[in-house]
Amino acid sequence: MGSTAGLNRGSFRPHFAGRSPSFLVAALLVGFGILGFSYYSLYTQYSILETQLQALLESESENQRILNEKNKNIELLDMNNNQLKTSLEAKEKQLKNKENDMEKLLGQMVS
Length: 111
Fold this sequence. Notes:
mainly alpha; 2 helices; 0% strand
């Protein structure tokens, strides 16, 4: 076996010395193509999701506004209900007083 001090890998393949093999370049191009396609499909999915998120946020804010309006309406109805209850109680008291007065008058008329 001889000395390999003067030989390097390039000397065994002189036609590839100093440049990349074509299959390596092709593999890199295929890899970049796959990466590009993956980026494009992920970007498309991200755009769709972002649009859906924006629609959900708008829907949520609209629902929150409607909920606030409904709560205000409920508060107003409760206040009105309380006022009507107190008014009804006052009217019932007046009616009882009138009935008592009427019974007294009838009692006086009969006697």
